[in-house]
Amino acid sequence: MMKVVIIGANGQLGSDGMQALPFHKYHLAPLTHADVEVADLDSVKQALERQEPDLVINTAAYHKTDECEEHPERSFAVNAVGAWNVARVCADMGACLVHISTDYVFDGEKGDPYRENDLPHPLNVYGVSKLAGEHLIRSTLERYFIVRTSGLYGFHPCRAKKGENFVDLMLRLGRERAELRVVADEVLTPTYTLDLIHQIEVLIQTEHYGLYHITNSGQCSWYEFARAIFDLTGTSVNLQPSTAGEFPRPIKRPAYSVLENRALQEIGLDRMRPWQEALQAYLNQRQHLCQTR
Predict the structure, then answer these.
(1) Do residues 86 and 97 touch, judged by C-beta distance below 8 A?
(2) How far apart are CA 60 and CA 37, in angstroms?
């Protein structure tokens, strides 16, 4: 049985991964920040040597994007050096690594879905630090899967977003306010964490190591995403489109960050469904969980 360590196991993706990966196929070992500090090589060595994993899934990241701009040293310590530390220990132990990266490595100027071979050009410290982590992994390890994804939402709290994913935030605000304004000039692909985990599981059964884009298919603006959430849940709210300029942020963000799962398609392994179907599945499961609590 393959032993899998999940670093960041109490985060949104890590928590959902612990529940979604089948226990009859994997021996799962969760590591939280209390168990390992990825920015500290000795901490990584001690934590992984205790577990002796066959595979490490690294979901740990410093992804409070505004704070990354204010504290670049912390951003690089976790997102770049931290990724490198995990890769170095995996190399020493002969373990494979799955590392989660981001659509923020691109600047959004292309206007068409980004492929894995498109040249990255991050706009902010967070994106630069994540890209640096990718390069350090690729220069250190042979058996790796670097996974870029975007717009994640799932069942467990996202600590970088004060415990709410975008779907939950919209539903709460839809109950509290008569009118909402949501950005219509930033385009992405929302991605359901369980779909991402299931796709990663397909990938790790192979030896097709390398860089992958993994998102649900299609694209939408944040406004269109919100509209779909309200329509599918029958929520009555006066939803109006706005521009990113109406909600100024201290950092630059890509206006278009849609990823194409081209590498998966080329090996015939793309299992990611349209984002609308994934959203419906999430909402159905969310309703079921609410009814059983």
Answers:
(1) yes
(2) 9
Domain ranges of the chain: 2-292
Interacting residues of 119 by C-beta distance below 8 A, sequence separation 6+ = none
pLDDT in tens, 238-255: 999 998 888 777 788 899
Q: What sign results for the dihedral spanned by CA atoms 153, 59, 260, 249?
A: positive
Helix 41-51, helix 82-93: angle, nearest 10? 40
pTM: 0.93
Domain spanning 2-292: CATH 3.30.70.120: no
Cβ atoms of residues 244 and 255 within 8 Å: yes
**Burial grade of 116 (CB within 10 A; 0-12, 13-18, 19 or more):** middle
Is 126 assigned a catalytic role? yes
Q: Is 288 exposed, middle or buried (0-12, 13-18, 19+ CB in 10 A)?
A: exposed
Which candidate in 114, 126, 153, 192 is catalytic?
A: 126
CA angle 114, 117, 119 (to 5 degrees): 75
Partnered with residue 146 across adjacent β-strands are 99, 211
164 falls in which pLDDT band (50, 70, 90)?
Answer: confident
Say if CB 177 and CB 122 are below 8 A apart: no
Q: 152-153 and 191-192 as β-strands: parallel, antiparallel, unpaired?
A: parallel
N-term to C-term CA, the chain: 33
Query: Comparing C-alpha atoms, which of 257, 215, 213 is closest to residue 117?
Result: 213
Answer yes or no: are the C-beta atoms of 216 and 190 closer than 8 Å: yes
Q: In the beta sheet, which residues pair with residue 145?
A: 98, 210
- C-alpha distances in Å from residue 157, one per residue of 36, 38, 142, 185, 283: 20, 21, 33, 26, 15
CA–CA distance, 247 with 270 (Å, rounded to integer) = 35
Angle at 82 between CA 79 and CA 131, to 5 degrees: 35
